[in-house]
């Protein structure tokens, strides 16, 4: 499974349809509706990742 953001392979499965990219430090979920991406907050909580605020795309 390659990371949908960086395309790298530094990913690990953390749950059903949930993956974590060590490169981007984001968690993403893949389902029928597409890819949902979450950032890990400093307190360990998950926040919706907003690609429009990032320079990644
Ligand atoms: Zn990545």
Quick overview of this protein structure:
The protein has 57 residues and is mainly β. It has no helices and five strands. The chain has one domain (1-56).
User: How would the global form be characterised?
Assistant: globular
Helix/sheet category: mainly beta
- The number of distinct β-strands equals 5
The pLDDT mean sits at 84
State the helicity in percent bands. Answer: under 10%
Cα distance spanning the termini: 19 Å
Are there runs of 5+ residues with pLDDT below 50, and where?
Answer: none
| Spatial order of strands in the largest sheet | 1-2-3-4-5
Q: In the residues, how many domains can be counted?
A: 1
Largest sheet: 5 strands, antiparallel
Q: What percent of residues are in strands?
A: 35-45%
- State Rg: 11 Å
Description:
This protein is an all-beta fold. It has one domain (1-56). Helix content is 0%, strand content 44%. It has no helices and 5 strands. It has strands spanning 11-15, 18-21, 26-31, 34-40, 46-48. Strands 1-2-3-4-5 form a 5-stranded antiparallel β-sheet, with no helix packed on it. A hairpin with a 2-residue loop joins strand 1 and strand 2 (18-21). The two termini are 19 Å apart. Zinc ion is lined by residues 3, 5-6, 8, 21, 23-24.
